[in-house]
Amino acid sequence: MEHEEHLKLLQATAESNQEAFAQLYEATSAQMYAVSLKMLKRKEWAEEAVQEAYVKIWHNASEYQTGKGTVLTWMVSIVRYRALDMLRYHKVRGESELFEGDGDSLFNPDGLAEQVPEKLAECIDELDSEQRQAIHLAYFNGLSHGEVGLHLQSPLGTIKSWIRRGLQSLQRCLSI
Question: What CDD domains does the entry give (predicted)?
Fold first, then answer.
């Protein structure tokens, strides 16, 4: 039911309906912010990424395609890409404290339920631990495959296989 409601609001947003956009924001902003904050680790950066994502959603609502996932998945991908851009920008500028520390805090499966819809969380729980951790580091923490390999002390090819197979498993699980 949630997807259908989001779809109606997004379609109305595509027609420049500000009230529908406000309702869509109200229904999804907490999840969008959780993903952004998890990746960026700084409140002000997370807020900026979410704001920019919603501006993009407003301007590109008509580009959503139902066959490529739920509205929320599409929206989360927008905020995720914006957060990744911000991480790269700050990393290039030498603000690398986001990547310092022991690294254990990067993978926190307990916080996963706050970031993703319930069905996705259930599907993620069914993955092998290596696949789950690699996907979490890449998609929720914004690490590149190479950085995931360094963190997990595994070869790049292995990391790519874990992520690819894990995403295939998630797709099958979510299709049921």
Answer: Sigma70_r4
Segment 34-58, tens digit of pLDDT:
888 888 888 998 999 999 999 999 9
Q: How many domains does the chain have?
A: 2
Output the pTM of the full model: 0.57
Longest dimension (CA), the chain: 49
Asked if residue 118 and residue 91 are part of one domain, the reply reads no
Both 43 and 116 in a single domain? no
pLDDT-derived band at 12 (thresholds 50, 70, 90) equals very high
Report the C-alpha gap between 155 and 72 in whole angstroms: 33
Domain limits for position 19:
1-98
Distances from the Cα of 127 to the Cα of 96, 121, 141, 167, 173, angstroms = 31, 10, 18, 9, 10
